[in-house]
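[agent] plan:
  1. take the single chain provided in the ticket
  2. run structure prediction with default settings
  3. attach structure tokens to the ticket
  4. add a short note for the reviewer (M.T.)
[agent] executing step 1
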Amino acid sequence: MKKFLIFAVTVAMTASCSISREETDRELKQQRDSLQAIIDNKDNELNDIMGTMNEVQEGIRRISEAEGRITVAEGDRESANGRELIRDNMEFIQKAMETNRELITQLKEKLKASKFNADQLRRVIDGLQQQVAAQDAKIQELQAQIAEKDAKIAAQGTEIENLSEDMGSLTDENKKQAGQLAAQDKEMNTAWFVYGTKSELKEQGILKSGDVLKHGDFNKDYFTKVDIRQTKHIKTYSKNVRMLTSHPSDSYKLEKDSKGLYELQITNVQKFWSVSRYLVMQVK
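[agent] step 2 finished; step 3 output follows
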């Protein structure tokens, strides 16, 4: 009987120890899982923050590249392609700056909401914010420079346009004056001649009562207009010619051609036409 009691107590103690060990293992596993969840959660928060910081840094880099493209395009500002390149890159920079400012705000909110108490992370975020602010100030200065240059180019364009209009007016005036001078020159070097029989000249009112061109009602259309600089020979197609208007005798000659027909040869143009710009010859 005594042996049986000892055996029963031993079995009960063994079972109690086994149950206690299982409970302990279960509690340890729960603690380990809880700790792992905390670690995983912090890792996710940290990865999210680091990812956003990388986005800001990438934005800063791309903005710097756009600034470089604008600097290159400044050398070709006069062309349409250069102005378009500057405009496109400025639009990109403005959007990228706005995005970076929003990301910095998000970083601060994420760090505040997280369970981290990382001063180093805060210093990194503050450094990024300072870089964004410095870049923003630089961009504003660049915008002011571009606006100033655009204003100068616009003013120069207006001046050139005004000069072009002035040149156009001068050109028109010069053309007008040139036309007037050409007309005056032509008029100064214009003369009229006619030859005809006595009866023909009378019919046209050129010869009246033995006077030549004494009356203003003669038929001017009967005359041939000539440029005295170019006309130095006038054929009469006649074997008998009489000069009815006065012209210096030493300024011309009447020469016969191979058929015996007279041709007037003007040897001194200015002198010949100095007395009268009308030449009347009577032929038979």
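[agent] step 4 note for reviewer: The longest strand covers residues 190-196.
[agent] ticket updated
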